[in-house]
Amino acid sequence: EPEVTQTPSHQVTQMGQEVILRCVPISNHLYFYWYRQILGQKVEFLVSFYNNEISEKSEIFDDQFSVERPDGSNFTLKIRSTKLEDSAMYFCASSRGKNNEKLFFGSGTQLSVL
Amino acid sequence: AQSVTQLDSQVPVFEEAPVELRCNYSSSVSVYLFWYVQYPNQGLQLLLKYLSGSTLVKGINGFEAEFNKSQTSFHLRKPSVHISDTAEYFCAVRPYTGGFKTIFGAGTRLFVKA
Question: What is the CATH number of the domain that holds B85?
Fold first, then answer.
């Protein structure tokens, strides 16, 4: 089965630094997402991306966050100035269609902000 | 808005015993219902989904779930578990229309003992 790939698997950064988390969604998928899971808490929706623009975002996705699809294959999440509370597992996901389609998740990037 | 409640944070069970993981949801609109599984150090994988029709849906690895509209529940069951079923299980909902995000429950850790 095709896979969503995420790099790096672990990222350690200092508070205030910028980080970019990278994802390669499944090639024929049209919808792309970022979710995060703080240790011991729910998987939380951050943002969805379709047709080269943000289609929906949560209240977590503030001005410190941005997403980009710089070419035909990559989908990135940038955190401009990391905070301690940004430490979490970040999951990229993609889907072929919208509402009734399953999400294909990557294995995640564990971000640790020190 | 939607919310998902998974009533048990951890469920220990002996191998070959039956198991039920409980999920209740609330939503002001019609939703699709999903169960995802997360094995250690991996992303989430879809176990099964309910879109419409028969309220009993069968998924991978011998799991099934029953949608109960009156009780707004979508409990996951397996008649006989294996050690390899040890994982985190997430119930999730997604609106029929008007939104891109999937709302997840807090997860239930299934621990299968020999």
Answer: 2.60.40.10
Each residue's pLDDT tens digit, B62-104: 999 999 999 999 999 999 999 999 999 999 998 887 667 889 9
Domain with B97, as residue range(s), is 2-113
> B112 vs chain A: nearest CA distance in angstroms?
20
Task: Express each pLDDT in B35-55 by its tens digit.
Answer: 999 998 788 899 999 988 889
- Taking only Cα atoms into account, the Rg of chain B, rounded to an integer number of angstroms, comes to 14
Q: Which two tokens stand for residue A14?
A: 């200092």
For position A61, which CATH number holds? 2.60.40.10
Structure letter (DSSP) for residue B101: P
- Record: contact B94-A99, CB cut-off 8 A: yes
Tell if the CB–CB gap between A45 and B49 is shorter than 8 Å: no
Chain B contact set for A34 (CB, 8 A): none
